[in-house]
């Protein structure tokens, strides 16, 4: 059997109580406090089959964009507690995005260049841009043009979800603790579940790790939704500039690490 549906989330299920005294003899399945199970969408091996239907309900709700804090009263952030079918064992269910962020190399260029173009193509479509009226837009850049940024101090990162490269961002060391963030992108079919913020938060942590303290970026000034998103994530608008070869105004924003 080959699973074809990409999994955005992974789940961790932990036994937090058994009966009133933690004695596993209360549970026909033998669950003990501290037992942990991990899975994507499905029932992990050894888990209580009678409680599986409750687990599936939670998994399906999360996969559909639900928040565990809203699904069950008293739930913690990204987790909730559910009783077993016999109300003997209590499980804690935690949901996490199923992803990794990795440093890429030159050999990855054809793959991440495609991610960049496909991601920014939706922006070009929204503004009605084509190769004729906006040849400088990143959605129309060739692999060779995108490769021009590969130099000392350039760090390309890829976000892999379910082993697929679905997101990209780069940092460039500009000196004096300043890093330029570029091409933050997520493929359209993988948006609106938090991967963009994961990439942005990763960059903030990486800059501090590299000894920096400030990030700068440029964006389409007319893209108010994107500007608002960056502002909500701690970036401050610093100015604009109009380039003759571009059909839009370039805006600039920056973020500075807390001192």
Helix fraction by DSSP (H/I, runs of at least 4): 10-25%
> What overall geometry do the principal axes of the alpha carbons give?
elongated
What do we call the CATH topology of the largest domain?
Aminopeptidase
Approximate strand percentage: 25-35%
Find the count of extended strands (DSSP E, 2+ residues). Answer: 11
Structure at a glance:
The protein is α+β, with helices and mostly antiparallel strands and 259 residues long.
Describe the structure.
With 259 residues, the protein is of the alpha+beta class. The chain has helices at 52-63, 68-71, 109-127, 143-147, 195-209, 224-232; strands at 9-18, 36-39, 79-83, 89-97, 99-103, 154-161, 164-175, 178-186, 214-220, 236-242, 249-256. The protein has two domains: 9-97, no CATH class; 99-256, Aminopeptidase. It has six helices and eleven strands. The relative contact order is 0.11.
Key terms for this structure?
7-stranded mixed sheet, 259 residues
Describe the protein's topology.
Layout: E1 9-18, E2 36-39, H1 52-63, H2 68-71, E3 79-83, E4 89-97, E5 99-103, H3 109-127, H4 143-147, E6 154-161, E7 164-175, E8 178-186, H5 195-209, E9 214-220, H6 224-232, E10 236-242, E11 249-256
Parallel strand pairs: 8-9
Antiparallel strand pairs: 1-2, 1-4, 3-4, 5-6, 6-7, 7-8, 9-11, 10-11
């Amino acid at each position: 059997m080959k699973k074809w549906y990409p999994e955005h989330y992974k789940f961790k299920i932990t036994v937090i109580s058994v009966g009133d005294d933690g004695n596993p003899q209360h549970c026909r399945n033998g669950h003990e406090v501290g037992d942990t199970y991990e899975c994507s969408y499905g029932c992990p091996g050894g888990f209580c089959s009678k409680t599986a239907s409750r687990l599936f309900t939670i998994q399906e709700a999360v996969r559909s964009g639900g928040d565990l804090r809203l699904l069950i009263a008293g739930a913690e952030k990204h987790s909730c507690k559910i009783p077993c079918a016999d109300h003997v064992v209590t499980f804690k269910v935690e949901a996490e995005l199923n992803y990794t962020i990795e440093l890429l190399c030159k050999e990855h260029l054809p793959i991440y260049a495609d991610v960049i173009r496909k991601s920014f193509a939706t922006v070009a479509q929204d503004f009605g841009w084509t190769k004729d009226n906006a040849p400088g837009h990143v959605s129309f850049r060739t692999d060779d043009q995108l490769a021009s940024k590969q130099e000392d101090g350039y760090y390309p990162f890829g976000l892999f979800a379910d082993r697929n490269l679905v997101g990209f961002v780069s940092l460039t060391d500009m000196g004096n603790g300043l890093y330029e963030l570029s091409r933050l992108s997520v493929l359209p079919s993988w948006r609106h579940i938090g991967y963009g913020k994961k990439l942005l938060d990763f960059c903030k942590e990486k800059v501090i790790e590299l000894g920096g303290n400030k990030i700068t970026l440029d964006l389409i000034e007319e893209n108010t939704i994107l500007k608002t998103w960056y502002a909500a994530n701690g970036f401050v608008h610093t100015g604009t500039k109009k380039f003759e070869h571009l059909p839009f105004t370039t805006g600039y924003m920056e973020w500075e690490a807390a001192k």
